[in-house]
Amino acid sequence: MTDLPCFIHGPAGGTRPSACVVLLHGLGADGADLIELAPALAETLPGAVFLAPDGPQPCDLAPFGRQWFSLQSRLPADLTRGIEAASPVLAGFLQATLDRFGLPASALALVGFSQGAMMALHTGLRMVEPPAALVGLSGRFLAAGDLPAASRPPVLLVHGEADDVVPFSEMAAARQALARLGVPVEAHARPGLGHAIDPEVLQLTGRFLRRHLPMGASPGPQSRGEPS
Length: 228
Fold this sequence. Notes:
The chain is 32% helix and 19% strand. The chain has helices spanning 31-34, 38-44, 76-101, 115-124, 169-180, 199-212, and strands at 6-9, 19-24, 48-53, 57-58, 66-67, 108-113, 133-137, 155-160, 185-190. Helix 3 packs across helix 4.
């Protein structure tokens, strides 16, 4: 399955994108929620195209929204089974997206929030050709299975200290686990922030991505801001 419904924004001026940022939503949300981050990030990343796909399943904990996998059970074995089933779906979407825009994996970044952060880290670290960067916002790292020898893209973690959904302590646990695997990690705590994304989080994300993504753009028509 590579054709997850998604929303698209950018790049600025209708140019052909030089980079791609995929935004991954959390449990009970959908791509329409995360694409709202694109205009702010595009101010820092004018050459990028932003895609926000819907998770492949309807949310089973609410009468609305989507999910990447079920969180009805939080047992480690069930979480591992869920993310390992969902990861190939996302991986197929990512490859189809790179093919669509004619971009290499080195021009791709994944930005995930909550459950989407779990997906970004798990799937991005297992790509045969590593992406340029991974960002996990208010999420956790599920260290399941081995990583490909060459896949160690830089990771940014940001987490609110007042998060009452995913404990703030998950950021330190993720940072330590990733460091043990040889993954370069940058982590930022947000005092007073709950389970949310605020302007400071967006600024940290934009600056991090700009350091790692190619930002030139070549002429060519490109549709903007519509579902695909």
